[in-house]
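Model it.
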Amino acid sequence: MSKRLENKVAVITGGTSGIGEATAEVFAAEGAKVIIAGRSEDKGAAIAKRLGENVLYQRCDVMSEADIKAVIDLAVSRFGKLDCLFNNAGGPDRGTLETVTPEDFNYSMNLLLGSVVFGMKHAAPVMKAQGGGCIINNSSIAAIRMNQGGYLYTAAKAAVTHITRLAGVQLGAYGIRVNSISPGAVATPIFWGGSQVANTLPDEKNAQKMEKLKLSLAKANPLQRAGLDKDVAYAALYLASDEGGYINCHDLVVDGGRTSLFRE
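Modeled.
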């Protein structure tokens, strides 16, 4: 039986931890050639080595358009095409309604929204030329509910969800599907500062924080368990595979039902 991503090429930003790392594992297991992009060079190289010869690591700061373009270019030069771009990279925002500075605003929007905008910008011409492709943008339930994230984080994720629909409409005629995933109550290092902080802590400390977080998040949805990075990775697998071939302009919520409990 063929694998679900056999002969497909994928780029995953933020691929050195959490959801990105889990997605790289799932995609590689399903036959894809994968480029994981992120800032943590040691972790990226170790993950690529662990997952085998069809997985490459490329250092990438998604706040740099040049870095994003370089990763897309690497996929084409190394593997000849780009079937899927998962704009997954992100992190905590900066600033609140009454404290936000121009620097906070620029940082938050460049990280959370700009990375998506420029990822799609450079993936679209490649996918148009080859006759199709799939773009997945990592959004959040913060985009559709109050009190699920920081002030600018929530605004940026709402923009990600909406710009996904706009891009899907514009690119659909070229065979390019654009969808988003909105995780909620998923245990990742973003809850204690993102990978930038987690990478400075010992593995034991990160594991302790993760177990405590899982217990807390288990109380936050009807399934009464924390979401795991693999839960989002398998959602991305569906969207990237031929099985998701008629899904476009859609936001797939992966939250165990949490959004049904919050109406404020």
